[in-house]
Design brief:
The protein has one domain (about 5-85). The protein has three helices and four strands. It has helices at about 25-40, 55-65, 65-85, and strands spanning about 5, 10-15, 20, 50-55. It is flat and about 45 Å long. The model has no long low-confidence stretch (mean pLDDT about 80).
């Protein structure tokens, strides 16, 4: 969901969609190989997405610590509230 959000007197900030996935390495390799083959055939994605993949929930937890998750949620709520004129 990429869109622009007006903040502080009309200044725009780009909002980007980020997908976090838990998937085995083989599935990741298959997905990437399929996408690269499509690009080789001239079929480019209409919308670029940011995907972050982890092989396990344990690997995700090593990166997304409790403090980072708290910051992520705080940031998300700020963006959501600005976008929807809601105060948290």
């Amino acid at each position: 969901m990429g869109s622009n959000l007006a903040i502080n007197g009309g200044e725009k900030m780009k909002i980007k969609e980020v997908n976090i996935k838990i998937e085995p390495e083989k599935e990741f390799d298959k997905r990437i190989t399929r996408k690269l083959k499509e690009i080789d055939k001239g079929k480019y994605p209409k919308k670029l997405k940011t995907n972050i993949s982890f092989e396990s929930i344990e690997d995700l937890r090593k990166v997304l610590t409790k403090k980072r998750l708290q910051l992520f949620i705080k940031h998300f709520l700020q963006i959501f509230s600005m976008h929807n004129n809601i105060l948290f």
